[in-house]
Amino acid sequence: MRKTKIVCTIGPASESKEKLRKLMIGGMDVARLNFSHGD
């Protein structure tokens, strides 16, 4: 089993499709969703 290495928090600064794509290409293993900034 592979261990998680890169965990990214997804919030207002990283919610666009292009930024998410760059995170995935950069090696993101897990996405943590931060809903504390939403309306």
Automatic annotation (TrEMBL):
Annotated EC: 2.7.1.40
Keyword field: ATP-binding, Glycolysis, Kinase, Magnesium, Metal-binding, Nucleotide-binding, Pyruvate, Transferase
InterPro entries: Pyr_Knase, Pyrv/PenolPyrv_kinase-like_dom, Pyrv_kinase-like_dom_sf, Pyrv_Knase_brl
Pfam family, one: PK
Keyword ATP-binding attached: yes
This protein's pathway: Carbohydrate degradation; glycolysis; pyruvate from D-glyceraldehyde 3-phosphate: step 5/5
Domain Pyruvate kinase barrel, residue spans: 1-39
Molecular function terms from GO: ATP binding; kinase activity; magnesium ion binding; potassium ion binding; pyruvate kinase activity
Claim: Signal is one of the keywords in the record: no
Enzyme class, first EC level, given as a word: transferase
SUPFAM superfamilies to which the protein is assigned, alphabetical: Phosphoenolpyruvate/pyruvate domain
Homology family: Belongs to the pyruvate kinase family.
Protein name per the record: pyruvate kinase
Species the sequence originates in: Candidatus Pseudogracilibacillus intestinigallinarum
